[in-house]
Amino acid sequence: MIKRSRSFRLLLLGLFGSSALLWTGCESTQGAVNAPRATTVGSGDEEIKPAPKSVSYSDKKDVFQAAEYESDITSAYPNARQIRLQVGEVLEVYRGSARIGDGQPEMAFYLPQEATAIVRLIVEREGSRRTYFLRGIAPGESVGGVVEKEWLNRQGTGPRDAADEARVQNAIRGEPFLILVE
DSSP secondary-structure letter at 44? Predict the structure, then answer.
């Protein structure tokens, strides 16, 4: 009886195994399996043409460079003081001082966040005197200016709030410094 039940189990296992193999070839209605299949149309007589050759134009500007320099920023700021730098060049742009009790607000040279990709602002402190330098990092153009230091955050890298940001923008529009790095 033990032998019979063993052979019966083998027979059932074989039957289930063959039915499982039969069902694996059936089409499913789930997931990405039913995604449209690519079909080839044609008789196979068509001539296969080689891919077009890639051509490089080294004397042309990059697409992004052309878009960046097409607009003439000098015409947008006709009354701007121009600061022209070469990459790696350092140039003094502003001297300010903070004398207590003189009734004048302390001024600082300000660069917008996008200008930090083309120039680096260097501040030299000597007592109450501040000297601001620009170092060219990469070719590009931007606009900066002299603003009241109290409008800037502690690091001097940005306005403290939205109201100060409006004051900074008005000050830069009033006396812009056009920064051109070549």
Answer: S
Q: Encode burial over 123-142: b for 16+ CB neighbours within 10 A, e otherwise.
A: eeeeeeebbbbbebbeebbb
Q: Which two tokens stand for residue 111?
A: 């660069």
Q: Going by C-beta distance under 8 Å and a sequence separation of 6 or more, which residues neighbour residue 1?
A: none
Integer Cα distance of 68 and 80 in angstroms: 19
- pLDDT tens for 37-84 read 444 455 556 666 666 555 555 554 444 444 444 446 777 777 788 999
* Rounded Cα distance, 24 and 92, in Å: 77
Q: Residue 87, SS3? A: coil
Distance (Å, whole) CA 181 – CA 143? 11
What DSSP element (H or E) covers 55?
A: none
What would the two tokens of residue 31 be? Answer: 């997931």
Residue-wise pLDDT for 119-148, tens only, equals: 999 999 888 888 999 999 999 999 999 999
Strand partners, 95: 131
Interior angle at CA 51, CA 47 and CA 56, nearest 5: 155
| Pairing relationship of beta strands 107-110 and 140-148 according to DSSP bridges | antiparallel
- What is the reported pTM? 0.57
CA nearest to 179, candidates 152, 146, 140, 148: 140
The dihedral built from the CA positions of residue 41, 44, 46 and 47, taken in this order, carries a sign that is positive
